[in-house]
Amino acid sequence: MLAPHAEHEHGHHHGTGVRWLDIIVGLSAMFISVVSLVVSIQHGRTMEKMVDQNEKMVTASTLPFLISYVGQLDPVTKQRTLHLTMKNGGVGPAIVEWFEVRYKGNAYGDLGSLLRACCGDVLPKDHHGLMYSNISGTVIPARETVNFLEFEPGMLLPLQESVDKARKDIELSSCFCSVLHECWLTEFKETQAQPVNACPARPHEDIW
User: Fold this and answer.
1) Which pLDDT does position 192 carry in this prediction?
2) Which of 189, 188, 165, 187 is nearest to 115 (CA)?
3) Rounded Cα distance, 165 and 1, in Å
4) How far is CA 10 from CA 7, 14, 175, 207, in A?
5) Do the Cβ atoms of 177 and 183 come closer than 8 Å?
6) Of 57, 65, 155, 172, which sits most exposed with the smallest number of CB within 10 A?
7) Can you give the residue ranges of every domain in the chain?
8) H-helix or E-strand spanning residue 165
């Protein structure tokens, strides 16, 4: 009689049958897996650094920086004149949330009340030759200037002199933001503008 034919098992064992070789193959597979994991983690960290650097570059390219200064001469005619100027010295637009002018500690939101407080004894009824600009709620492009108080050359000289003398008691402050909604408070002094999460509120009648 014929002996029954034994069926061959079909398992998933991939060993070579040589123990030391099987060990080497297993260790090699583990090593490759570990190396792949390390490479993946390092790649993720590298991408995070690149994203962070790109964000910093975008932020740096949109930073505004407000400064204020006083001019005593007309840049064209070279005649004596007085102008109080705001400049955005940064590389991005400055969104001016508010701009405040104080004289002897009190805020004045319009030119007339400021002039009456500082220079009422020489204030003429006719302000012809005197111009001013509101700053609050405006956007000052990078490298642009705005004269928020300006006398025409040769006009209202007594008032110019009175305003010039009063400048020692005039203080300015502002809160401005970048297009990325990063905001700063400044008093236009030697100290740097202070970053804030949001501009603090100011009474509408107190801002220029």
Assistant:
1) 84
2) 165
3) 130
4) 9, 11, 78, 87
5) yes
6) 57
7) 18-60, 66-206
8) helix 157-166
Residues across the chain = 208
Could you state, in chain order, the average pLDDT of each consecutive group of 10 residues for the chain (208 residues)?
A: 49 60 72 74 69 57 91 77 93 96 94 93 87 94 94 90 94 96 93 92 93
Hey, CA dihedral for 121, 124, 125, 131, is it positive or negative? negative
Which pLDDT value is given to residue 1?
47
Cβ atoms within 10 Å, residue 71: 14
- Interacting residues of 81 by C-beta distance below 8 A, sequence separation 6+: 71, 72, 73, 74, 150, 151, 152, 153, 154, 155, 160
- Output DSSP code: residue 121: G
Lookup: tokens for 130 = 């005197």
Strands 80-88 and 66-73: antiparallel
Q: Which residues contact 122 (CB under 8 A, 6 or more apart)?
A: 158, 159, 162
- As separate numbers, helices (DSSP H) first and strands (DSSP E) second, the chain gives 3, 10
**Is the Cα dihedral 95, 185, 195, 53 positive or negative?**
positive
User: Which token pair is 23?
Assistant: 């060990």
Residue 134: strand, helix, or coil: coil
Query: Which pair of tokens denotes residue 74?
Result: 């007309």
